[in-house]
Amino acid sequence: MGDGRHALDWAEAYAYDLVILDVILPGLDGFVTCSALRNKGFSAAILMLTALDNVQDRITGLDRGADDYLAKPFSMDELRARVRALGRRRLEERAPRIQVGDLELDPATLGVWRAARQIHLTAREFALLELLARHPGQIFPRDRLIDALWNADFAAESNIVEVYIRSLRRKVDEGRRDGLIETVRGSGYRLRAIGAA
Question: Nearest CA to 98 among 18, 26, 195, 29?
Fold first, then answer.
């Protein structure tokens, strides 16, 4: 992201599960950035990764809102293990169900219901719908969806997002005038924010 101010902008624009944040950043340093993220209600995991490795620096990072602190030099295996651990912790903290209007999702079972009608989705369809449902009203550009749910193997010209959005609309909004999945022309896709819980 380059610097702390960009980190704050990106955190408002996109949904992240985990942020790896260096302390030594131009502009706002990592400590200030971490505090600002938490003050804005940013709830994703934050792992501070930095050359500042004395005890007081670690205490400062954790007190400012970091979930973990790893000093350089570090082992890539340890970094991966810490990321996995933070991911498990966040999964345990998730609300058991997500509700947006009459749409309900159960991440534990991949169950989906709309107005009590069960909807059968593939795992990837569920992941896309869950991402949108956890952030109702937020617009997700197609590139962001590809980054979050697929990988770099999908070229920019791929229509994979459109295919999955069309499939979700058919299953979730079938026969209804009040479609939940919206296309925002020139920007991306979002789930209409209706009584999200």
Answer: 195
Whether 112 contacts 103, CB under 8 Å: yes
State the DSSP string of 107-123. TTTTEEEETTEEE---H
Distance CA 192, CA 71 (A): 42
CB atoms within 10 A of CB 190: 18
- Dump pLDDT digits (tens) for 149-164: 775 555 555 788 899 9
Fold of 98-191: Arc Repressor Mutant, subunit A (1.10.10)
Locate the domains of the chain by residue range: 4-93, 98-191
Euclidean distance between CA atoms 66 and 21, whole angstroms: 9
Residue position matching structure tokens 């345990």: 92
Domain 4-93 is classified in which CATH homologous superfamily? Answer: Response regulator (3.40.50.2300)
Q: Is 85 exposed, middle or buried (0-12, 13-18, 19+ CB in 10 A)?
A: middle
40 versus 150: which is more confidently predicted? Answer: 40
Q: What is the largest CA-CA distance in the chain?
A: 61
Alpha carbon dihedral 20, 26, 32, 35, in 10-degree steps, equals -30
Reported in sequence order, the residue ranges of the chain that DSSP labels E, i.e. its strands, are: 18-21, 45-50, 68-71, 98-100, 103-106, 111-114, 117-119, 181-184, 188-191
Over residues 187-194, mean pLDDT: 89
